[in-house]
Amino acid sequence: MDHHTHPKPVHATIEGTSFNNLEGFFDEIDRVLTKDLTWKTGHNMNALNDILRGGFGVHGYEEPLHLLWKHHRDSRAALGEPLFEDIITLIREQEHIQLTLA
Length: 102
Description:
- By secondary structure, the chain is α/β, with parallel strands linked by helices.
- Helix content is 40%, strand content 17%.
- The protein has a three-stranded parallel beta sheet.
- Helix 3 crosses helix 4 (81-92).
- It is globular, with a radius of gyration of 14 Å.
- The termini are far apart.
């Protein structure tokens, strides 16, 4: 019996067709990774980093998270290659997040 089992990851899905600019992307992140907040999150890369870490109502702080990004090619086209890659890099730097691009 393995006493070092990891908790099952929380699953969340970014819908890549639901936004066409950076502000819309941040709205999608709020929808997917925050819940029951009584305040608005910052819409910038530092705030995104904090939300990815967890503790905003969907997954706990550094709790395992499987993040599925559907229609990521649409997101890449909408956000532009450099910005999309910056976001992907930021997500992949989170050791507790498994990112799947679909």
